[in-house]
Amino acid sequence: MSTPAAASTRAPGFSESPVRWLLGKIGGGIFVLWAVATAIFFGIRMIPGDPAEAIMGGPGSQASAEALAGARSQYGLDQPLYVQYFGQLWRLATGDLGTSYSLKTPVSEVLGELIPPTLILAILALLVAWAMALVVAVLSTRSGALGSALGSGLEIVSAAVPHFWLASVLILVFSTMLGWLPPVSTNTAAGLALPVITLALPLAGFLGQVMRDTLMEAQRSAFALSARARGESEIGVLLRHSLRHAALPAIALSGWAFGSLLSGAVVVESIFARPGLGRSLLSAVTSRDIPMVTGVALISAAAYVVIMALSDLAERLADPRIGTS
Amino acid sequence: MTLARPLATRLLPAATALAAALVLAGCSPAAMTPDASGESGSPVTGGTLVYASGDAEPACLDPHVGGNFPQALIASQYLESLYTKDADGALIPWLAEDSTVSDDGLTRIVKIRTGISFTDGTALNADAVKANFEHLLNPATTSSTGYLALGKIASMQAVDASTLELKLKSPDNSLLESFSMPWVAIESPTALKRSQADNCAAPVGTGPFKVESWKKQDSVKLVRNAGYVLPDPKAGHAGGAYLDAITWRFIPEAATRYAALQAGEVQIIDNAQPDAIAAAEKNTSIKHLDAPRPGASNRVELNSSKPPFNDVLVREAFIHAVNVNASIDSLFFGTAVRSYSPLSSVEPLALSEESLFGYDRAKAAKLLDEAGWSQRDSEGYRVKDGTRLSLSFPVSTSQSIPAEQSLFEQMQATAKESGLEIKIKLLDLSSWYGELFTNNYNLVSAPYTKVGPSVLSVLFHSDSTIPAPSGYFANLSQVKDPSLDALLAAAGTTKDLAERKDLYTQAQKKVLEGYYLLPLYNQQNHFLYSAKLKNVGATTAVATPTFFDTWLSN
């Protein structure tokens, strides 16, 4: 495989050509999207009740027989299941996400409005979580056994805190008691603070734990010792060598973390009355809005695939050893 | 929980006094009357009221489409009905001026007020009302509540600009009550000709406010209708609303809504939870409006179509085996009052029979022995022919608030002492309906709002046990009693008011004495609002607040 020509196209961290790597990622992504679409298609039909009734305004709407029949034929629900399934796959493949049953507007249009606020929330939460995790990890490793134990304890507790509880406590303290931050989220710094912290804190605890273990290991490793021997300061060792090591597992986890942020958004967007994918997924599931549920799930899956690929890429760039062995 | 006692004792000096107060409070869902608490100061014009709703965000702002309570809440600000209720709870003409019915009850003439226009400039007249009824009855509109309310109309004709003649399939003395519901509100016929999507986004009515814009999952912006004409000049001040605008926000989480009210971000919240109400009662800057919904009380229905509740003895035993009152007091912090009626306390014809209910384990034990459930299994549950006395109780998490779910759990605990097993299943709305459609329940609690005692026909007539094509049926206790059917049919068609009352009383007696339901309390409809908001208290016939007379003080 390693012909001179192929070797010359190698980028850092890639044993194969980056193009091949990219194609592999795209193929894997398509497989994931197909699996998600299939699981939702069949899964949602297992729930008792009639999708036509969801179209007619939800369960118990007492729609007349002719109205239901009309809805069934309009949305193709009267066709055999396999026809519906392949029809759905074809439409999804051609980029048609269908029309929301409850909102009566194209799903792609609704998603276009809801993706940005959720993305802002998730990206900010990820950045804040990284910052918090780094600070706690660095401070605690540099302040002896007691500091380390303290940091570890803090991380374990915050990693275990449920979003729902944390959000309620933050609202109680910062909105009701102190009156500093609004309980209802807007896209301003003050309006974003509480939801971002709610999402970031448990994540920071998780990332911090992983980061600190690697950091301590790196501080004791041979390259750190040799760097110190070369006269490098502790800060220099940390910045130039150890942090890079500590970041690796955290980068690998960030893909997973982003997925968890999307599920956390369901809770956080509802509590802080913030428009977004999570909140709309919740209401779509309750109202059996199949096109909306499918659309939100596919978008989340696609985001997950992209983020996983990006974190893989970041990992390879941070540690050129990966993929070259 | 520790707060519950002193508060309950403060709020409930005596159960009877409170029941009486509640009837009075119930009457205050008055159409356009200023609130009785006596607001001082002269009204201030201007300002934007921010309302925070915890009800689901409507998929369509036109309550003709579908027809649920969240739609009624917001539509009451921009749409008006033919009838409404006054301060005493009596039905009064609103956009209608008068109505008469023929001796055979089959022809009804409705006189429409003149000089009123919709906010798009279209004039209100008999043709406009006819267009609304046609819109409601058209299957393409997918109306449920309004469609059912107008079900008896066979044909209609605008005789002249202000006269609408309705021909009915059979007499219907609840028609004016139906006309008072927001789900049968009158919209501009010009606007109704637009696509359904356009009309859903911004319905056009005659109300004191109009829809300006709708940001999904966030808020609906309503602005003052500058050309507002009050249909009944006796009912409020002249001119338009005092407020410039209303921002109708959707804040699903109860704690967040209350925090937003405390922070001054919003001035009024609905779906206030018992703990927040109890806290607000001690806070001078927050006021409380208790406006119970009309129609049925909140109740647990006993499925009489299959064992074990096909035996009236077991139904009666269940009623005496559960301790409801103590739980309601503690879980609802004294904000909910026990009901002993199938109807809401705001229904003038509600019959209350406290003597039939009550926690009595000895009586329950005797009844169960008599019914043959005399054996006990290793876990202490009653057994008959090798089968445990087990009751399936699907609970919709989106319809039962946490306090109510706790109440059901406490009922479960007390029933166990009498050897009855209650299996509570917490379900999302779709799955909950699934259990109902497949008759997979013994106990169920479902809300139902309709103006007037005719809701009894919806809930207890044997016709309502036949599922609609969607699988839904409203008679969840599955009572099939020809004598009850006859009473309900006669009550719905008689022209004699005294006879109507007598027939509905007999009908209620039958369902209560048959132990088909366990009444709990009025459908909870609590609003908390800032003391800066003056003259809150005016509500429509279905107890949704209106803000025509309301102003914001500085």
TrEMBL record, chain A:
Residues 115-311 form the ABC transmembrane type-1 domain. This is ABC transporter permease. One of its GO terms (cellular component) is plasma membrane. SUPFAM superfamilies: MetI-like. The chain crosses the membrane at residues 21-44, 119-139, 160-180, 192-211, 250-272, 292-311. It is found in: Cell membrane. Its main location: membrane. Keywords: Cell membrane, Membrane, Transmembrane, Transmembrane helix, Transport. It comes from the Bacteria. GO terms for molecular function: dipeptide transmembrane transporter activity. Belongs to the binding-protein-dependent transport system permease family. Pfam families: BPD_transp_1 (PF00528), BPD_transp_1_N (PF19300). It is a multi-pass membrane protein.
From TrEMBL, chain B:
Keywords: Signal, Transport. GO terms for biological process: peptide transport. Gene3D superfamilies: Dipeptide-binding Protein, Domain 3, Periplasmic binding protein-like II. GO terms for molecular function: peptide transmembrane transporter activity. PROSITE patterns: PROKAR_LIPOPROTEIN. It is found in: Cell envelope. One of its GO terms (cellular component) is ATP-binding cassette (ABC) transporter complex. InterPro entries: Peptide/Ni-bd, SBP_5, SBP_5_dom. The keyword Signal applies. Belongs to the bacterial solute-binding protein 5 family. This is Peptide ABC transporter substrate-binding protein. It comes from Arthrobacter alpinus.
